[in-house]
């Protein structure tokens, strides 16, 4: 039996500098939005990381709760030399399990990686919206991810070329 090449675990505060290093190339390519260190520390409990057998960080992803039934997959990234080896799949599976454990029934993502998310059951949201009462609550949020989900005009410059996708959890 082949030994597992990597493992997924909850992120720790000591991982934040390594998370920032891992996502830096994607921020430079404008695939991910840059975040200040304080934002990573404030949200560290939302993150899962993947380490190889040598303890190197090779992947990261976060689950952010947006509403009673809705969460967002954020900052899903894998180092270039580990792409295509199941790391992203393992991370997304863990985040989906976390979402189910929290009682969420839908996951949202804003992504350039449409084929990856499509393979994992996400579909283009198109003009899908939420119930007007929920919208009225969500629009009060200061979170940029919520604004992206709602497709608010103020976030349009940051979302150009991205696709808003959603998955209903079974």
From TrEMBL:
Q: Which domain of life is it from?
A: Bacteria
Keywords tagged on the record: Acyltransferase, Transferase
Q: Which Pfam families match?
A: Acetyltransf_1 (PF00583)
Query: Sorted alphabetically, which SUPFAM superfamilies does this protein's record hold?
Result: Acyl-CoA N-acyltransferases (Nat)
InterPro entries associated with the record? Acyl_CoA_acyltransferase, GNAT_dom, NH2A_AcTrfase
> What GO annotations for molecular function exist for this entry?
acyltransferase activity
Q: Where is the N-acetyltransferase domain positioned along the sequence?
A: 6-140
Protein name, as recorded = Amino-acid N-acetyltransferase
Organism (species): Cryobacterium glucosi
